[in-house]
């Protein structure tokens, strides 16, 4: 036993309580003696009880008891429920008398199967569960929460969890942390859930968007616990498609079955698995859906006419339509690109693609979902001048070689014509080309810029690129004016190169006109050759001196470029810079290694052909690299760019760099898979649809690709499921985040579902979809039937570790109740009793203060039994002496009373004189001495209480005796009237008797 206080701080109220009692004792003049003490004690006791109630003071007793709640996982994954019941019964038989046990069942929800009790089980061999629950999901957290509530009612204990740990709803680990805070440990018993012979279709994958006539693969992932033969059956809209016999190995099995998209529209696909001896049929189905649109068409843009035969043959074999054009035929209208499902750039240099087509290519991929495939060659990637172009932004690789240290240093001088003929945008594009070249160079490279008209001048003196921004700012300040003098500008550039210390030195000359003088340029080109310098020239437009510029490029051992489209100047400069500053072509015998190939992994199961060369690039951060070179360069990469997809193949397709690839028997299939991967993944739908299971209920998730919310007659977004037996009622989609909506679908059978997503029309009562978009989603079978969940054992171990519990084996049922009992404080709630006592004391307090009762006699009567008990318990040796004294006092009192009583009886009649004298004295006292009357009253008040308690018949004679004695002592008065004096004396006696009676 003990005393505890829930709120000890409230005991501080005792300090002001003591002050209050002290002031009450000092400042209560109305109450005196025992009555005052009783009031103070009662008031103090009331306040003390109230403080105890506020502080939660209560007695408690300490108990030592073992309370165990058995939490049985009864989900579908627990195949042997009898083993669970036997384990519980065995543990129950080994509990001690006084121990309590309870049983809970957990599935999607948790229920109490048997409340905490010390009684034995009806069946001591096996406990038979009596409750029903949803066994399609496992939510252990709800069971732990319910078990905690039961144990708290008994003051604590332990939970024994019997499960396989295959949780698929709730968060058991979070629930375990809450139990730790409550001081409740969880012991775990791991029970096997896997069947000896179980095969399941884990996943069926089909492209969500297909083209009519397109061949595709049914990708199946099958898990099995045994080795044996099986049969796979595929259905399209409940129509058989194909059947295949397969051999299953224990573990994971992957299969790919071919199909052809024949009819347009949405289609549901179902796969069924039949294996001999399979003990579980609920996991033998999987579902998928796809939308088939019109036949696909691919645009091939080839840099070398007639070089795309291998590509065309591969596409034709897969029934994919195609068109082949040259780069110059690319449309300047964006709408023209949306007509294709994918565009292939086959060894096309950027210098042959105009500015607008370059922009539309990137926009068609990012905004309209058109696919893009770049195939390598000597004029592609960095060699083709794609650095800092819109096409580079859409591809999964960078054109420059980032992080390469073996690249030789470069000294570059740009000689740019700034004559008046370079106006009308030519000079602006030339400056853009120069700035892009500066960005392409490294900090260790040196650059100089000469602008010329009739005379040359250095815009940027040859300097290392330590301050790149300053160089770009100076180039931006070039203005067009003056004539054209090429020789002097070329000579200035040559002299500037002589001062540069670099491993490679190169000059680029750009002009759109003809020199005003005829000079011997051979002397400059010969001097450049002697100093290992090279010269490339760029002629812009028909008015340029093409013959001179071509001769200079040939003599300078560089390249000559002619362009009518000034928008290609940045690409030309980039290409030229790349060719001079870096070694982009990597050659030799190259053995690719497989990386993140995704669904392309099956293409390389039998090996990957070798290469002879490729163009080096740098993969972007979010790109998936399917094939790597030994040097860490990407050979095959893909990624998603905006709404579309793009693929980069850095070797060629004509057999010069990849002869083994074009001869590979899977080459047509591989190329077709790359191209089809880039096909649009949507049909312009403004919604992205997905589904998930949320605690046993299906949840539809809709994400908008733009601002789809409308006002007016539209009340919001909704979804209507299209089922075989008809269209279900529309379900309103609730916004949960910007652009994200959800709807609860309730319990749904596994399958592929189609739905209409759109706005509810208020004109039709708010129940019809207006302008809906058809989409699909899949509800898989319950996760309870999945094979190979290896996380269950780890979860159970974490639960035991977090709560401080034990991990018991199947053979240790007797250990369930073998733990140190917890000493629990069980408080007794006496607040009601204290309130009743306080109320009674309050009533007593009121009575003591307000009622005029003989409190002294009451107190004496109350104390008399205690005095008697005390005298009996402990006799006083002076008791006899005190008794004798009291007896003598009583005897004297009796003698005195007797004496006065006898004197009154024999008193002679008063003489007239005496009466007159008495009357005179009384009158004088009453008239001249008011204080005397008061003293007389005080004298009367000071008489013993015993006198007041006597009846008037006993008191009056005594007063008469006193008066008679007084008359006897006085001398008789002469001339009085005896009868009158006697009457006055009698009157006075009656008044005194009445006064005494009133005071009593």
TrEMBL record:
Swiss-Prot/TrEMBL keywords: Membrane, Transmembrane, Transmembrane helix
UniProt-annotated stretches for the region Disordered: 871-984
Amino acid composition bias (Polar residues), ranges on this chain: 913-934
Domain VWFA per the UniProt entry, residue ranges: 411-576
Transmembrane segments: 6-25, 37-60
Basic and acidic residues biased stretches: 881-908, 958-972
Pfam family, one: VWA
PANTHER family for this protein: BLL2462 PROTEIN, VON WILLEBRAND FACTOR TYPE A
Name of this chain's protein: VWA domain-containing protein
Species annotation: Paenibacillus nanensis
Taxonomic classification: Bacteria, Bacillati, Bacillota, Bacilli, Bacillales
